[in-house]
Design a protein that fits this description.
With about 525 residues, the protein is of the alpha/beta class. Strands 2, 3, 4, 5, 8, 9, 10, 11 and 12 form a 9-stranded mixed β-sheet that branches. A two-stranded antiparallel ribbon has the order 1-13. A hairpin with a 2-residue loop joins strand 6 and strand 7. Helix 14 runs parallel beside helix 16.
């Protein structure tokens, strides 16, 4: 009877494995041909296929149904990866699996980028697999004894485990360039390796942990507001037909800032937490190994030394303001460990005006102004993560008068997303002006740091007017700073915190020698990352 099991199950297992390798060739960027991949990568692929196939076979009892369902799932992964690559220039990685649950809780942030066509194709493939499997194929249990069925499924699982063991005997190297690793290893092997890397012990030299208990603040400490503005960058660099006064307040603040310039950030189009964590931790993305893709999954769940925790040790009250769900990216669990005394989320913005689907930047500015107005002699550090300009922008429509307020010369057809983006950019600009006004009205000193987390997702617009280099813009303005300074200094986002400390006159113990790029804190420490193998 064992022969009967293998004659029924083996064709489905072999055909499914072959088709899985063909489906993988649909990926963007395309994977290498089979003969150019490491043998270990193929062993991991086939081992995982057999393991998953045997598990589904135990549940469905129909080999071709199990193979078809598994292929439909793999096709869905390929479609999701291609959609991500199109929007964010990065394929699907292991750390993205948690976004499937996020997509159910926050569908507007994710599903539109998959596209109706891709979603329909995946649903049709799944429906065809279910319909065909149940209607055409008989259960093996109607033809075989239970013991033979279980023995055969166990044999398939053991074969999968053996292949997986062979593939893991020599650990495949990964570069953490997601596109390059996908091309070289294939989808399943790359996913497996990134999952493995996340579980390894990780040790890194945190820049702020060297700063000790922190010096006492001065007699009249400066309040500090840092705004990570959603999708903010000076898009006027790409198209001269945009009105210069779209960023009137930003231009004025840059002109009188202590420092201003371009900012090299850790993300393109999305993945705000990469830039966010780099700013707060002072660590470059290259120092984080696999944790660069989402540092809040595991790395930030421990108590870490950050800019916020250092300022708290120096006597500051530390507050984060984010007008969205506290559980998104697990910020409600992460932020207390990053050194924040309070996290103000969407629950504090009940009834607040919106601009588009999200709480408006001006409403967030008013919340920050109320915190500043109600502050005591204790200095206040407010870190703001805005939402208004969050995509998908193509789900919104231009409003009457938007074109006149945004352009001197209209762009090419198909640039409605740019018009919507510019409307929200004007509101961000007004937010910057409102915060400066509030800081200027308070007694004592105050400092405002402003930067963009990444460029927006505007693929059609970029095809029409040009693609940005991915850098955003920043300034650090101080109330009593010398006017008309505007010192241009291009930075990496992990260097920005050191300049912020200088701006509020918080002493920084000398840890490393100053470099041309950043004065003192991050020259060496950001590079001293060590991953310990298990």
């Amino acid at each position: 009877m064992a022969d009967s099991f293998w004659s029924a199950a083996a064709p489905a297992a072999v055909a499914g494995a072959g088709l899985s390798l063909l489906i993988e060739r649909l990926l963007q960027p395309p994977t290498r041909p089979l003969w150019r991949r490491p043998v270990a990568a193929l062993a991991i692929h086939l081992g995982l296929w057999l393991l998953l196939f045997s598990c589904l076979l135990l549940v469905l009892q129909r080999p071709f149904f199990a193979a078809a369902a598994l292929l439909a799932g793999m096709l869905f992964l390929v479609l999701v990866s291609n959609a991500k690559f199109h929007a964010l220039r990065e394929p699907f990685v292991f750390q993205d699996f948690e976004y499937f649950s996020d997509a159910l809780r926050h569908p507007r942030l994710y599903l539109p980028f998959l596209g109706a066509g891709r979603a329909l194709l995946a649903l049709l493939a799944f429906a065809a697999a279910v319909t065909g499997g149940l209607a055409i194929e008989r259960s093996l249990l109607s033809r075989l004894p239970v013991t033979d069925f279980l023995a055969g499924a166990g044999g398939l699982a053991l074969a999968g485990l053996l292949l997986l063991w062979l593939g893991l005997a020599k650990k495949l190297s990964v570069s953490f360039d997601a596109a390059a690793d996908l091309r070289r290893l294939g989808l399943l092997a790359a996913l497996w390796r990134y999952g493995e890397e996340e579980l390894l012990p990780f040790k890194v030299s945190w820049p702020y942990e060297h700063l000790g208990a922190g010096p006492p603040v001065r007699a009249h400490p400066a309040h500090l507001v840092v705004v990570q503005s959603e999708s903010f960058f000076d898009v006027r660099r790409l198209f001269s037909g945009i009105r210069t006064d779209v960023l009137r307040e930003f231009d004025a603040l840059q002109a009188s800032a202590l420092w201003q310039g371009r900012l090299q950030v850790s993300a393109w189009g999305a993945n705000t937490v990469r830039t966010e964590f780099a700013f707060l931790s002072g660590l470059a993305i290259d120092a984080l190994a696999v944790h660069r893709f989402n540092p809040y999954r595991r790395l930030a769940r421990q108590d870490l030394a950050t800019l916020a925790s250092y300022l708290r040790r120096c006597g500051y009250r530390t507050v984060c303001v984010h007008p969205y769900a506290a559980s998104f990216y697990a910020r409600d669990k992460v932020y207390p460990r990053l050194g924040f005394d309070e996290f103000i989320d969407i629950r504090s913005f009940s009834g607040a005006p919106k601009s588009g689907p999200y709480v408006s930047d001006l409403a967030v500015a008013e919340k920050v102004c109320s915190l500043l107005a109600g502050s005591s002699e204790q200095p206040l550090f407010v870190f703001v993560i805005t939402m208004e300009n969050h995509g998908p922008l193509h789900l919104e429509d231009p409003l009457p008068g938007d074109s006149e307020r945004c352009y001197t010369v209209a762009p090419a057809a198909g640039c409605d997303d740019l018009t919507i983006y510019l409307r929200h950019l004007r509101n961000a600009d007004s937010m910057a002006g409102r915060l400066r006004q509030q800081l200027a009205a308070l007694p004592g000193n105050g400092c405002l740091c402003w930067f963009g987390d990444h460029v927006p997702i505007l693929p059609e617009v970029y095809r029409a007017i040009g693609t940005p280099d991915g850098q955003t813009d920043y300034f650090i303005w101080r109330k009593d700073g010398p006017m008309q300074v505007g010192t241009r200094r291009d930075l990496k986002v992990e260097q920005l915190g050191d300049f912020v400390l200088q701006a509020v006159d918080v002493p920084r113990p000398s840890v490393t020698e100053a470099s041309d790029q950043a004065p003192g804190l991050f020259r060496a420490t950001a590079a001293k990352a060590e991953v310990q193998s298990a």
